[in-house]
Protein: Large ribosomal RNA subunit accumulation protein YceD
Amino acid sequence: MFERQFIDSLDFANNNRELRGEIAMAQMPRLQDKLVVLDAGFEHDHKEDISYILRGFRDRNDKPMLEVKLDGLCQLRCQRCLQGLIYPLKLVSQLLLVKNWDESSVEVEDEIDSILVDSHLDVFSLFEEEILLNLPFAPRHPVGVCRPVKEGYVVEEIDRINKNPFAVLSELKYK
Ligand SMILES: [Zn+2]
Structure:
């Protein structure tokens, strides 16, 4: 159900292609040491799948671009109590496709991230990279919240995140 996807990135951008679907956290091996896996009961009830939209286009300067949008919940390890911390993953990033790294330096003033053109781009590996770049370095529960993860806490937390994901995100990032 989560087959790996490959695209020809330049062709994808030139033809305004789009790919949508879901990916399981378990499919991104480089993320595993950042994540906490709860018991099977948890995974069954609240699947830690991330929905994605990958879009190719040419920007206003006619440069080939990819846009990655990821949305879902994952569990990081709280650096204070070492228990799971539910983290709302909401990520949008735009990447310029370049043929070599010299070309990318021209774009530095625009602060656009670049990736090399790849005729066999591993889409999930790209998502993994983007997630790694965007996860907080030392995530912590808000003060006073550290406690063993129980099913009740998890449900409560997901509820809170669903009501206001951006408030939860800023709490986590700036603590
Ligand atoms: Zn904690």
Residues 39-45 have pLDDT under 50 and may be disordered.
